[in-house]
Design goal:
With about 450 residues, the protein is α+β, with helices and mostly antiparallel strands. The chain has three domains: about 25-195, Beta-grasp domain (Ubiquitin-like (UB roll)); about 255-370, 2-Layer Sandwich (Uridine Diphospho-n-acetylenolpyruvylglucosamine Reductase, domain 3); about 375-459, Enolase-like, domain 1, CATH 3.30.390.50. It has helices spanning about 45-50, 115-120, 130-145, 165-175, 185, 215-220, 235-240, 275-280, 285-290, 300, 305-310, 320-325, 420-430, 445-459; strands at about 25-30, 30-35, 70-75, 80-85, 100, 200, 205-210, 225-230, 245-250, 260, 265-270, 330-335, 340-345, 350, 355, 360-370, 375-380, 390-395, 405-410, 415-420. Helix 2 packs across helix 4. Bound molecules: flavin-adenine dinucleotide (FAD) and FE2/S2 (inorganic) cluster (FES) (2 copies).
């Protein structure tokens, strides 16, 4: 990856087009499934349930409840095999082509429950049972996660229970020991094969998974397609509003969009890296990043959601824009014409609109060094975890005592303010910020929040 954001010419190289097919395979609970003529936006949840694996439930179909959680066998960025719990209601089935998926049904063997299931049962962690398979799957992924075996109950933040109460569920979780020996532990000792290119065509839409940037751009050239990364935003639109896309181009296997480079002048983060991957790769990230990350959705969402997807949605209440604006980030955009670099502040052009032109892809996000002397992130939402912001603010003090503040939830786009000192910034907010009113908060409330967050940073 380039150490500097510049207008490098993009070299078009030849690539081998994968053959379009009407079927693909993946492994479900250890059995190979041959999928044929399923709509391109059919979800993993619907498919598994249609095959009799009905443990995972549809509670919300929008990533909020975790009742649909399943396990994907993944490579974590340091090339260790891992189990990732994901919301299967937001996973388009073709995106698991050639991958391994496990549902809650696979965890018990020959009638003997897994340790997680036994712990849930012993702690009385289930009443109606609707949420239970999802909790079990999230706990299982945590138990098999590499690294210190500390159990953080926030890792279950994407799973909701409406009747048992969280205490016994947390007790079950905290009682878990290290991952036991057996077939699931053994699977972690073997690598995950690289994702192969895919061209899937069904009666209802196409789904392509290119394995190079050239290929992705070539596929997008017809102007009749939509990029998809983690599908945590697009999937909600699909599920709840019934929107269908003619052709989805997955960015999941495009290596150029998955690079991470911590150089002397900047950190450059590939747009298709998930938030979970970024936190693995950026071990010495500034403390404001560690403050920001747990406030972004849940582990289940962060395992799929990408930084590029968050910026490309141009949501005025997206959480990464305020942070990245305060850190003075730039975005690198790629197309067949070449590459261009934009300050993030110029990327958002209107309500849910960006400077991306047809056929362009967000390639990476570049955060220049040195990082600010101090920076904080604040998120005001109805719930403290796993909720969208009413107002989000990131505030950075620069070496010459200038203050920069990135704000979400106060205008049609994320915005940034800079002033020579904090008093000047307060005055700038007071005189120029004109937030909108909606069901989450009035304009006056949002202005007061922005000012109070700045004051909180001062104290
Ligand atoms: C339950 C839940 C909780 C959430 N909580 C939060 C939260 O706390 N904070 C927050 O900010 N967001 C939140 N979100 C929104 C969402 O998860 C994020 O916006 C996420 O980062 C989107 O990334 P993605 O990879 O899933 O994008 P996708 O859904 O795959 O794509 C979103 C859009 O971006 C486009 N796109 C994706 N990648 C690129 C690229 N590289 N170049 C060009 N276009 C691209 C797609 O075409 C699509 O239009 C939440 C969503 C859910 C369902
Ligand atoms: S059904 Fe609620 S998160 Fe998937
Ligand atoms: S046990 Fe009923 S919703 Fe959790």
């Amino acid at each position: 990856m380039r150490g500097k954001c510049g207008n490098s010419k993009f070299t078009i190289v030849k690539f081998i087009m994968a053959v379009t097919s009407t079927d693909f395979r993946f492994s479900l609970n250890g059995r190979t499934m041959q999928v044929r003529d399923v709509p391109a936006q059919f979800t993993l949840l619907d498919y598994a349930r249609s095959r009799g694996f009905t443990g995972a439930k549809e509670g919300c179909a929008e990533g909020e409840c975790g009742a649909c959680a399943m396990l994907l066998v993944c490579d974590d960025p340091v090339s260790r095999t891992t189990y990732q719990a994901v919301n299967s209601c937001l996973v388009p089935l073709p995106s698991v082509a050639d991958r391994e998926v496990f549902t809650v049904e696979s965890l018990a063997e020959n009638g003997v429950l897994s340790e997680v299931q036994t712990a849930m049962s012993a702690a009385g962690g289930s009443q109606c049972g609707y949420c239970t398979p999802g909790f079990v799957v999230s706990m299982f992924a945590e138990q098999y996660r590499s690294g210190p075996a500390t159990r953080d109950v926030h890792s279950l933040g994407g799973n909701l229970c409406r009747c048992t109460g969280y205490r016994p569920i947390h007790d079950a979780f905290l009682s878990l020991g290290p991952a036991p020996a057996g077939r699931f532990k053994e699977r972690l000792s073997r690598p995950v094969p690289a994702l192969a290119p895919l061209r899937y065509a069904s009666m209802e839409g196409r789904f392509s998974r290119p394995v190079s940037l050239d290929e992705a751009l070539q596929l997008a050239a017809d102007g009749n397609s939509r990029f998809v990364a983690g599908n945590t935003d697009l999937g909600v639109v699909t599920n709840l509003r019934g929107e269908r896309f003619h052709h989805l181009i997955s960015l999941e296997a495009v290596p150029e969009l998955r690079e991470f480079n911590d150089g002397p002048e900047a950190v450059e983060i590939g747009a298709a890296l998930t938030l979970t991957e970024i936190s693995e790769l950026w071990r010495d990230a500034p403390s404001v990043f560690r403050e920001w990350l747990p406030l972004f959705a849940s582990v289940l969402i962060r395992n799929r959601a990408t930084l590029g997807g968050n910026l490309a949605t141009a949501s005025p209440i997206g959480d990464s824009a305020p942070l990245l604006l305060a850190l003075n980030a730039e975005v690198q955009i790629a197309s067949f014409a070449g590459e261009r670099c934009l300050p993030l502040a110029e990327f958002f052009t209107g309500y849910r609109m960006t400077a991306l032109r047809p056929g362009e892809v967000l390639r990476s996000i570049r955060i220049p060094k040195p990082f600010p002397e101090s920076a904080r992130f604040f998120k005001v939402a109805k719930r403290s975890m796993d909720d969208i912001s009413t107002v989000a603010a990131a505030i950075a003090v620069l070496c010459d005592s200038h203050v920069r503040m990135g704000l979400g939830g106060v205008a049609a786009t994320p915005v940034v303010f800079e002033a020579p000192d904090r008093n000047a910034l307060q005055e700038l907010l007071r005189t120029t910020l004109k937030p909108m009113s909606d069901h989450r908060g009035s304009a006056a409330y949002r202005l007061a929040l922005a000012q109070n967050l700045l004051a909180r940073f001062e104290s």
